[in-house]
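Researcher: We plan to redesign the surface later, but first we want a full-length starting point. Tokens attached.
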């Protein structure tokens, strides 16, 4: 009985890992990637998540353009669509929304 329960627990544990994992390389889901490749904008919901103190999603950061490279404090300014953000590069924490 213990063996059966132990095996069931292992199957459930390792089965859930693959379902919860992010796509490799921080890529966007295929539907969003297709929109970006066609030159369309990211979904409007990502802009609602922009608040000082929050962390920018790495997928969104990957589609940005560095305007001012990393300074001696580890800060970087990026442009993502029409927004300019000052971030801590290591953690992607939003320090300031510039526009």
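Model: Full-length starting sequence:
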């Amino acid at each position: 009985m213990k063996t059966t329960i132990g095996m069931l627990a292992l199957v459930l544990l390792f089965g859930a890992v693959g379902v919860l994992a992010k796509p490799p390389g921080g890529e966007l889901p295929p539907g969003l990637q297709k929109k970006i490749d066609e030159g369309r904008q990211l979904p409007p919901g990502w802009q609602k998540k922009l608040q000082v103190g929050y962390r920018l999603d790495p997928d969104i950061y990957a589609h940005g353009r560095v305007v001012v490279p990393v300074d001696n404090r580890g800060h970087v300014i990026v442009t993502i669509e029409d927004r300019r953000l000052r971030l801590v590069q290591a953690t992607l924490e939003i320090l300031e929304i510039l526009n």
